[in-house]
Amino acid sequence: MTKPLPDAGGYVTLSSRIAYENPWTRVREDIIRRPNGKDGLYGVVERGQFVVILPLGETEDGRRTVTLVNQYRYPIGQRLWELPMGMWEDRPDAAPEALAAGELQEETGLIAKTLHHAGIMYQGAGFTTQKGHVYLATGLTQGPCAREETEQDMTCHTLLLEEVEEMIRKNEITCMVTLSAFGLLRAQGLI
């Protein structure tokens, strides 16, 4: 039997088991050996990749707008302001751009002429493998929404970019994925 090799961080996985699984999430429990030689337990949440999209529009007088969704998030018992985002559990191999176009239309009804991939993010690298792709959507036209059963309470709101920035300053937007995507797009000079 071959001895397990350390990963890039010096950790060795001694054993691994699936503790829980559903169509969206799998929880893995690993027994590890840390770089200092001490053994430990690590719980890892495995989830498919997701996308987050900032739909950037314009008013008739040339002012920039952003479309947000507002929905109830059961785990925290609150409604949150968010950029459109999601994953396709039934199509984990979908191309990120197709996923971005699909989620944007599903949640907001918007169809983007251009989807610009701005980068990637990890949604909690201390406990999950979930990787996200950030998109800027422009050239927007309105079509019908096609929300999933779990999104029926979702509402869609197009606000001035300045109003969204004020919501961020006032800590009214608390979704870390939304805040990170906004920051990445702003740092790249795209919004």
Strand % is 35-45%
What's the number of helices? 3
C-alpha geometry: elongated
| CATH domain fold name of the largest domain | Nucleoside Triphosphate Pyrophosphohydrolase
Q: What Rg, in angstroms, do the CA atoms define?
A: 19 Å
Alpha-carbon distance between the two ends: 55 Å
CATH architecture designation of the largest domain: Alpha-Beta Complex
CATH domain class name of the largest domain: Alpha Beta
Instruction: State mean pLDDT (0 to 100 scale).
Output: 94
Counted up, domains total 2
Structural class: alpha+beta
Domain Nudix hydrolase: 46-181
GO molecular function: hydrolase activity
Cofactor: Mg(2+)
Organism: Acetobacter malorum
Describe the structure concisely.
This is GDP-mannose pyrophosphatase. The protein is of the alpha+beta class. It has helices spanning 96-108, 161-169, 176-187; strands spanning 12-21, 26-33, 39-46, 50-58, 64-73, 78-82, 85-86, 110-122, 131-142, 155-160.
Task: Give the helix/strand layout.
Blueprint lengths: L11 E10 L4 E8 L5 E8 L3 E9 L5 E10 L4 E5 L2 E2 L9 H13 L1 E13 L8 E12 L12 E6 H9 L6 H12 L4
Parallel strand pairs: 4-9
Antiparallel strand pairs: 1-2, 2-3, 4-5, 4-7, 5-6, 5-10, 8-9
Give a written overview of the molecule.
There is one protein chain. This protein has 191 residues and is α+β, with helices and mostly antiparallel strands. It folds into two domains: 12-46, no CATH class; 50-187, Alpha-Beta Complex (Nucleoside Triphosphate Pyrophosphohydrolase), CATH 3.90.79. The chain is 18% helix and 43% strand. It has three helices and ten strands. The protein has helices at residues 96-108, 161-169, 176-187, and strands at 12-21, 26-33, 39-46, 50-58, 64-73, 78-82, 85-86, 110-122, 131-142, 155-160. The strands form two sheets. Strands 4, 5, 6, 7, 8, 9 and 10 form a seven-stranded mixed β-sheet that branches. Strand 4 (50-58) and strand 5 form a beta hairpin. The longest helix has 13 residues, at 96-108. It starts with 11 loop residues before the first strand and ends with a helix. The mean pLDDT is 94.
